[in-house]
Design goal:
By secondary structure, this protein is an alpha/beta fold. 41% of the residues lie in helices and 18% in strands.
């Protein structure tokens, strides 16, 4: 098929008149059943380079993508065009995923999207050999490389699959963010005679700016002032989930139409927000980096970062979501030199310590274990266990084994010793990347050119619209009026405790503050761990204010408090003051088994096991509405366990009220 013939079909199927030159060059190689690595800027139209060839092949095209939102959007678009496409991911039920697999086996699909993590599933592993595969696509291919900015162990399994396929099946790997070294690593892993097609990364319509600030409050004031005057809508990126909520609630208090978004929200909530955002319902979505990947919204007019990203690569990818319609978009990084702590923490903790690797090795030396039991045996988080597993498999220290339909991991005796030199080299590499990102905040060079050069594009020219090119130095300090409004907001911002389930009578509760948002955390720490005495009146007043704001329409019959593990009568005395002020009776819960402090456990399985069936009550609570008091809310496992017990005892409503909600387990997405 030549280009003219292909563009006739393009018009018929997709409605476009012509391909860009690099699009056609890529498609031509794929139709010739070659292997290609395509590196092109966000908004280039990389999806067409695999969707079009997929419609021309007889068999099935498998597209590996880590972006669930992209899958949803592209599946919807393809099906509207009459192209039969399906997807497999964690948001669907097993029945839905299994039906999609059967449709793929039975040649009822042309395109199948799958999240790389789903390859762990034994049903998929058995089914893939039965599929008539014509074409394999690896989207966001930088995830394959340990040196890439978003490495994911599950991507390595794609390489294993490709090694089993005939050499004449074409492979296309696509990304917008691969340095020269990462590109070489991807090419080496995919193997074969793979051709690199690298485009121009210059985004001439993005106006890049760095605004220097001195505090989080400065950022809050700058954002609200900017959103009040800017036209169009966009994204405000934060470093943590709690900050996404805080900044969004601040903007709402300033009568700005915003909403927060992060990976901790349930799937239905995320889908609703994405749909409403696509329809321009919000001035801004204030989000962690969970939003934007794979969502094709062309008219994003601004992107603001409140936290410096870990590398120029992360930053280029995230700002690349703006201005995809070709019109001008404004990009701002709000930078305080103190902001380096969070990304440095992520970088230094990205790889588990050698001690944690040895924990996993020791556990597997005792016998084969599945992932969940490995988490229990080592007291490690799921993400840590998955990273360690992938590395130990790579180093041939462990192997996968099947016990019936159950997959386990076993230690290989006489295996080589753990080699941590690569891990250390990777950490140093990440630290150097971050140094370049910090350098970006003060560079006098064209900021777009700085990013393009870092990504290996040496052909771009200056943008002539960034603050460096215009010789602007942006500094911001908030006004006295801003200070007053932010103080008022801080005194009246109360985090929600999301504990409602269909299995209990728990309702969502409230905390008087985030642990690290104000001085609340410092006061709690002094009382709890430094013999500072009972929680003072300031915490009582703040907690009662949170209660009044949240539960002013709710009548309660009884106050209960969570029994302590180590902190003596702190919670009991605090609960008594709450009950006395509200003129409610108070009763104790009974602990019927010994528990340990929840904070020592690193994963939900052990937290749940620690307090399972640990509580009881010896008074009648049938049809009673209960206010449940604790000092700190972390994972919520204790509150949920008590809520289950009280529901079984007949309680009508259980509402948790705590002094502080932690951000210690907060993560970036």
């Amino acid at each position: 098929m030549n280009r003219t013939e292909a563009e006739v079909k393009l018009k018929q199927v997709f409605g476009f008149d012509r391909f860009f030159d690099d699009q056609w060059k890529t498609i031509d190689r794929v139709l010739q059943k070659k292997r290609v690595l395509l590196i092109e800027k966000t908004g280039f139209g990389k999806s067409l380079t695999f969707q079009f060839p997929a419609t021309q092949f007889d068999g099935l095209t498998i597209i590996f993508s880590p972006l669930i939102s992209l899958m949803r959007n592209q599946i919807k678009s393809l099906n509207e065009k009459g192209i039969k496409a399906g997807l497999i991911n964690s948001e669907q039920t097993d029945d839905e995923n299994n039906l999609t697999i059967q449709n793929a086996i039975n040649n009822k699909l042309k395109i199948l999207y799958i999240a790389p993590e789903r390859q762990e599933n034994s049903t998929w592993q058995e089914a893939v050999s039965k599929m008539n595969i014509s074409f394999v696509v690896i989207d966001e291919a930088h995830c394959i490389s340990v040196w890439g900015h978003d490495f994911r162990p599950a991507f390595r399994r794609i390489i294993n699959l490709m090694q089993l396929l005939p050499s004449n099946i074409p492979v296309l790997a696509t990304t917008a963010t691969a340095t020269v070294n990462v590109a070489e690593d991807i090419k080496n892993q995919i193997g074969g005679d793979i051709e690199l097609i690298r485009g121009d990364l210059l985004r001439e319509n993005l106006k890049l700016n760095v605004v220097h600030v001195e505090s989080e409050e400065d950022k809050m004031a700058w954002i609200s002032n900017y959103l009040k005057k800017v036209k169009g809508n966009g994204i405000v990126y934060t470093g943590t989930r709690s900050n996404a909520e805080i900044f969004s609630k601040w903007c709402e208090s300033e009568k700005l139409n915003t909403i927060y978004y992060h990976a901790g929200l349930d799937s239905d909530s995320r889908k609703i927000i994405e749909k409403e955002w696509m329809n321009n319902k919000y001035k801004a979505v204030i989000s962690t980096n969970a939003l934007g990947m794979g969502i094709d919204k062309a008219d994003i007019r601004f992107i603001i970062h409140t936290q410096i990203p870990q590398s120029p690569i992360h930053y280029y990818q995230e700002i690349g979501r703006a201005g995809r319609d070709g019109k001008t978009a404004e990009i701002f990084l709000l930078f305080n030199p103190k902001d380096t702590d969070l990304p440095l923490s992520f970088i230094n903790n990205a790889r588990p310590s050698a001690e944690k690797y040895e924990k996993v090795i020791h556990a597997l030396k005792q016998g084969p274990l599945g992932e969940k039991n490995l988490m229990k045996a080592t007291n490690l988080k799921q993400t840590q266990v998955r990273t360690i597993k992938a590395d130990l498999l790579d180093q041939k220290i462990i192997r996968e084994v099947m016990y019936g339909k159950s997959k386990k991991f076993e230690y290989l005796y006489n295996a080589p010793k753990l080699d941590t030199t690569t891990f250390e080299a990777l950490r140093e590499h990440r630290l150097r990347e971050f140094e370049k990102m910090v350098e970006y905040t003060n560079t006098n060079q064209c900021k777009m050119l700085y990013l393009c050069n870092y990504l290996g594009d040496n052909n771009s020219s200056s943008c002539n619209i960034c603050d460096s090119c215009l010789h602007n130095k942006n500094k911001f300090s908030m006004s006295e009026d801003d200070k007053m409004k932010i103080k008022q907001f801080q005194d009246n911002f109360f985090p929600i405790l999301e504990v409602e389930t269909t299995r209990t009578n728990l309702i969502n509760g409230v905390a008087s503050s985030y642990y690290g948002f104000s001085n609340v955390g410092a006061i709690i720490h002094k009382c709890k761990y430094e013999n500072g005495g009972d929680y003072p009146a300031i915490l009582l007043k703040q907690t009662l204010r949170a209660f009044g704001r949240t539960f002013k329409e709710q009548k309660f019959d009884l106050v209960l408090f969570v029994p302590p593990t180590k902190s003596g009568k702190l919670v009991e005395n605090f609960a008594n003051k709450i009950a006395s002020t509200l003129k409610l009776p108070i009763a104790p819960l009974i602990k019927i088994k010994e528990t340990k402090e929840q904070k020592i456990f690193q994963n939900g399985a052990l937290k749940t096991e620690n307090i399972k069936d640990a509580f009881d009550i010896n008074i009648d609570i049938i049809d009673k509405s209960i206010l449940l008091i604790d000092d700190i809310f972390d994972s919520g496992a204790t509150i949920k366990e008590i809520g289950k017990m009280l529901t079984n005892k007949g309680a009508k409503i259980i509402a948790p009220l705590v002094i502080a909600k932690t951000v210690g387990g907060d993560i970036a997405n």
